[in-house]
Design a protein that fits this description.
Blueprint (H helix, E strand, L loop, with lengths): L7 E2 L6 E2 L2 H9 L6 E2 L6 E2 L2 H12 L4 E2 L6 E2 L2 H11 L1 H12 L2 H13 L1
Protein name: Transcription factor grauzone
InterPro entries: Znf_C2H2_sf (IPR036236), Znf_C2H2_type (IPR013087)
Main location: nucleus
Amino acid sequence: MLRHSGTQRCDICGQECSSVMTLKYHKAQHRKDDLTCSVCEKVFKRMINFKEHMASHTGDVLYSCDFCDKTFNSNANRASHRKKMHPREWLEDKMRKRGGGAAAATEVTDVQQG
């Protein structure tokens, strides 16, 4: 795989980015075709923000809780719900993703509840 080293500079605004991928993501933010809500005319640069916003108007469900039946139109709202309403499961999931496994999360939770 080809890798580029050093910083990359945006030819639009001059901002330095740490990698080619970071520069590509940054330049996507300069798009001329901003996304405009047809209901309230709010403008978005990122497609995911636009989709989540539109779901707030349409009532579409984009996300669901892994631990209960609650649904959300925003990933941030789902994350907040999981952390607040399912703290043990949230911590176990977080530890599992970090490589600590559910057993480590259980130990941490037991110590916290101690």
